[in-house]
Specification:
The chain starts with 5 loop residues before the first helix and ends in a 5-residue tail after the last strand. Helices cover 29% and strands 17% of the residues. By secondary structure, it is of the alpha+beta class. Strands 11, 12, 13, 14, 16, 17 and 20 form a 7-stranded mixed sheet that branches. Strands 3-7-8 form a 3-stranded mixed sheet, with no helix packed on it.
Length: 426
């Protein structure tokens, strides 16, 4: 679908506003849905609650502004409020007719009126705790209206609002970390309450039209469902749960009827992830597998390891003769030999979920070495704790790569998670 014309953009906003008013109702939490979409879009840059790291509040707010800002609009009215058919000022900018600087996102991130929570990673990994009303939380002091959290050192108080728990707030003031972003049960009550899924066609137009040229979606002029799923890191299961691409959906239908020149092709969801780079394409269902990997412990020192050292240790402990060549810029980080086989291992890590990016040299090496080129991925990376390593063989063929203008090759997370193997099977 072509996304360059301004008239359909206005129509897309009207359609999404109608979805809120006529389908879900005024209680639909559109601002929180925008935060969720941003967490998915930036998921490789958002630390996991298990990583031991955090993203600062002002950085996260800037990322949200960047995703939703429209390039042709002034800074004091450029951030689209998707379900309100409105545009707001960027954070820190005085809006049109206003007297104080805009602060779009902060209240929705913290516990007073938002989806932030000070609980431990173990608690936030529990579905029971995630589903528990905040008024019943063991850490609540007093009542939800005017009460406080015993874990919050600043003494911030609740304002009576009940919200899901999507972010961990660091009690030490270092920012936020995200809970499991693939946990449908935690996000469905806001994104698609009562099964009312977001109409996909106007949503795609709204997100991509006039978007920030510094982002990966900024250069898009013709966007498919596959592009959307890739850019926002949605698996088949997530896509089917959150979005409605049917041409019978009232908002999809009315939007296309208003702008008949737009051509939209619904995707066969089972083939969203079948377009791959490489000379040996294959098809597979996009799925959410049970990931298996190699758990590797850190050294006894307190200084931590680089991600490459975790992979080095795992291979060494498995009987490989291992050589660290990461400083030589040869297109892989580790050269390993066992028996009659030599493998070339590239290590990619992220403090959140990982959609690794390859340089042209790395991608060429991967294509050249085929099944002997191994992608070792560490998500939620913590240099001072144990980490799980996921092994992917021959990523130029087994994963879907997208060539960027700067000659980097990006592998989507929804692509590589279906190709994970055990260390003994690489």
């Amino acid at each position: 679908m072509e996304v360059g014309s301004p008239e359909p953009y206005e129509g897309a906003l009207r359609a999404l506003n109608a979805f809120k008013r006529e389908v879900v109702g005024r209680s639909y939490k559109g601002r929180f849905v925008q935060i969720f979409l941003a967490l998915k879009f930036y998921e490789q840059y958002i630390p996991s609650i298990h990583s031991g790291t955090f993203i600062q509040s002002d950085v996260l707010q800037s990322m949200l502004d960047d995703l939703y800002s429209k390039s042709s609009r002034p800074l004091n009215a450029c951030v689209v409020s998707i379900f309100e058919n409105n545009h707001l000022a960027r954070t820190g900018v005085i809006p049109i007719g206003g007297k104080t600087s805009s602060n779009i996102w902060r209240n929705n991130l913290h516990l007073q009126k938002g989806i932030g929570c000070y609980a431990s990673p173990n608690e936030l990994a529990s579905q029971t705790f995630l589903d528990q009303d905040r008024s019943d939380c063991r850490h609540l002091v007093g009542n939800l209206e005017g009460g406080s959290c015993e874990l919050c050192e600043s003494g911030a108080s609740y304002r009576r609002e009940e919200h899901r728990k999507w972010l961990r707030i660091d009690p030490g003031g270092n920012g936020f970390a995200a809970v499991d972003l693939m946990n449908l049960d935690n996000f469905l009550p806001y994104v698609a309450p009562n099964g009312d899924r977001i109409p996909l066609i106007p949503l795609i137009y709204t997100l991509y039209h006039d978007s920030n040229p510094a982002l990966s979606i900024g250069a898009a002029t013709d966007v498919s469902v596959e592009d959307f799923c890739s850019d926002f890191n949605f698996t088949e299961r997530e896509f089917d749960a959150y979005f409605d691409q049917s041409l019978n959906n009232p908002q999809n239908r009315s939007f296309l009827q208003e702008f008949p020149s737009l051509a939209f092709a619904p995707a066969a969801v089972a083939t969203i992830s079948t377009t791959r780079l490489g000379s040996r394409p294959r098809t597979s269902r996009l799925r959410t597998p049970t990931l298996t990997g190699t758990l590797t412990s850190p050294p006894r020192s307190h200084h931590g390891w680089d991600a490459e050292q975790f992979v080095y240790a795992a291979l060494r402990d498995d009987g490989w003769d291992v050589h660290d060549v990461s400083r030589q810029q040869v297109g892989y980080d580790i050269l390993a030999h066992k028996g009659r086989r030599t493998i070339y291992v590239e290590v990619k890590s992220s403090v959140g979920y990982c959609s690794p990016t390859f340089t042209a040299r790395e991608w060429q090496q991967a294509a050249s070495h085929g099944e002997n080129y191994i992608l070792a991925i560490i998500e939620k990376y913590n240099p001072t704790n144990s980490n799980m390593i996921y092994w992917v063989v021959d990523p130029t063929v087994s994963c879907r790569g997208r060539e960027r203008n700067v000659m980097m090759h990006s592998v989507t997370r929804s692509s590589w998670i279906g190709e994970v193997r055990g260390l003994s099977d690489i």
